[in-house]
Amino acid sequence: MAAGIVIGVIILVVLVSLGWSGNNKGREQHRRERAQSSISDVAIRAGLGGHNKTFGPVPADWHGIGRLAQIFVGLVGVTVLGFGVHVVFLQFAMYLALIAGLGLVFSIVSAVFYGQRNAGGRLDLFEHGLVFTLKSRQQVVRYDSTTLIQDLVEHRRNGVTIRVTQAYELTDVDGRPLRLREGIANPEEWGPRLQQGVSIHQMPTALATLGAGYPVEFGKIALQPAGVAAFGTVVPWAEITDVEIAEGQLRIKTTASRPAIAANISSLTNFNLLYALIRRGRGIQD
């Protein structure tokens, strides 16, 4: 009796959720069309230049959910048959059906929540910045004036990297924070584009600032005309022996008399610009 109730509830959740998601898809498409019409105007007013590429939200895997639903229904059928013909072996399908049903409910709830959280989400990259649209809200970022903090986390299994989680926090033209995560499709493509855009656009100003004798701040590390300043000390360029990236950290190696300067990349602003300037300061040209 209890198993029958559980199975009935799961089937009801499947039907209701799939129907609701279909209606929601239409509403989402309408929001996207309205947002698209204003993105060009916003980009022109902000002087972002030519459009490069658009990235939308990661779509829910309804095809995979449909396959799981078919497996669940098949197992329910085997279970009903097993109890009908009193075959114990077939009755064991009930436990597999419960497992598949719970997985199906979890997948549907995750897909619906994930889709709602990113409904209307759209990232448009331009020559000099970006426009991020979420529902009716738009945020504009210019590469030459933003601050970029990147948080890239490697997920390992048995010593092998299986995937990298990416998150970026920027500052828009109004000074508000903008956090971009993997809810936007293809972060392995748009993430490096953000890093490169900020580095290229802010390099001339950074070089001019250093050339005028002033420091450039990057969070816990600052560059000065004479060297690298961090944690209350300044290391002259001549004493820096190497610079490397390992396990989410920037490590600046110095002469034997000094300990290495180490800082988490996620605690540094405009990291790619910082890294490029340190290499330039040491006379290394890419």
Gyration radius (Cα, Å) is 26 Å
Order of helices and strands: HEHHHEEEEEEHEEEEEEEH
The low-confidence parts are: none
Taking the alpha carbons of the first and last residues, their distance comes to 70 Å
Q: Helix segment count? A: 6
Work out the strand percent: 25-35%
- What's the pLDDT, averaged over the residues? 78
Number of strands: 14
Describe the protein in words:
With 286 residues, the chain is of the alpha+beta class. It is 47% helix and 28% strand. It contains 6 helices and 14 strands. A 4-stranded antiparallel sheet has the order 1-2-3-4, with helices on both faces. The protein has a 4-stranded antiparallel sheet with strand order 8-9-10-11. Strands 5-6-7 form a 3-stranded antiparallel sheet, with helices on one face. Strand 12 (240-246) and strand 13 form a beta hairpin. The protein is flat and about 85 Å long. The chain starts with a helix and ends in a 5-residue tail after the last helix.
